[in-house]
Structures are given as C-alpha cells and as structure tokens.
Amino acid sequence: MQQTDIRILLVDHQELVRRGLQRLLDDMPRLAVVGEATTADEAVQLARSMKPDVVLMDVEVPGIGGLEATRRIAQLDQLTRIVVVTAKAGDPFPTQLLDAGASGYLTKHCTLEEIADAIRVVHEGERYISADIARQMALSMLPGKEQSPFHRLSQREMQVMLMVTRGQTVRDISESLCLSPKTVSTYRYRLFDKLGVGNDVELTHLAIRHGILGLALESE
Predict the structure, then answer these.
(1) C-alpha span between 162 and 168 (Å, rounded)
(2) The domain 149-218: what is its CATH number?
(3) Which of 20, 103, 109, 150 has the greatest count of CB atoms below 10 A from its CB?
(4) From CA 209, how far away is CA 220, in angstroms rounded?
C-alpha cells in the first residue's frame, strides 16, 4: 500500500457486496480497503481502532443502524470521513445523516467511478451528494411539496423510531444507545406526538407508508 493511499473501511452486512467492492476499489488508483464490518456496532469499534480515512457506510446496516454509527464515528475522529450508501434515492432521512456527520451520500445504483470520486472528494474535506439524491432533496423543499412527517424528527428521535419499527424493545434500545429506559421512553412518546400516532403499530404503519420500513426490510 502506498503512502498516499486512502484507507477505506467497508460497512455492509452482505458479504457479496463487501467482497465485490473490496476487489473493485483496491484496483482503483489511491484507494485501499483496510477493513470490513458487518454491523453498525462493529463499524464503530473498527473505526475507533483502525482510524480509516473514509468509511463507506450502508445506511441500513444491522445493530444500532447507519444513522447512529455515523454519529458515533464522526465524534470519534474528525479526520475520518463517512460516505453513506442507501438503496433508494427517495431515502427519507438524508438531512439527518448529513447533520450526524456524513460527508457523502450515494445510492447503491451509482457507478464504481462515482463511488471512487465520492471517496476522494470527501477525503479532501469536501461534501459529495449524488445527483439523484440532491434532486430529491431539492424537490422536497419546493413550495407546496408535501414533506414526510419524519423530517420533523431530531437525529435521536429518528434513531429511536428506526429501532422501534424493527421490533426492538425499550430495554434493547436503551442498551444499544447507552441511554436509560426512561430517556428512551421519553424519546418514543415525543416522536409519537410529532408524528401524530398513538402506539408502535401506528408508527410502523406510518413508516411503511412513507417508505422507511420498506427500505429497511429490502436491505436485510
């Protein structure tokens, strides 16, 4: 590995995806895959120990999820850049992930060349958002355009919502996010109020209607 190589940590629960990306990226100039993670928790641990230059993060990676993993890795080392990869351009929470510390945002439908370009751009301290995601973000801000109610949620509320809709209990969420059960319950009822739902079932149905839960299921 050359001294100028950009060291990359791949985060995706699908081995075939990781293996394919590793082979392809290692053949690209100045790029070197130095580690792989299958869960969000493992990604945080490896980012802490390996200090990669760039983390290529699947947004729906199991465990605490891509959103929380992005937040934690961004807090670990400001020199580590994070490029989030999503299955759909219509992903309903790009703003939360960018606010959490992501420097790049791509869809899995992009080309290898675009992935490589995004990695190089964020490594230089810039942001990179693929054209299809940027277009969706711009359209959502047009006057008269109905926004998803999930845009009202904070980063932490969004994370709790994602874990609730995947069937995780308050205790599970408490242990994963290092929060007290009382604090998790507070977040849970706060997001119920913001979204106008009364229980977990209604929340799950709302997530399905807005494509959030469907996105998670497709990637599992």
Answers:
(1) 9
(2) 1.10.10.10
(3) 103
(4) 19
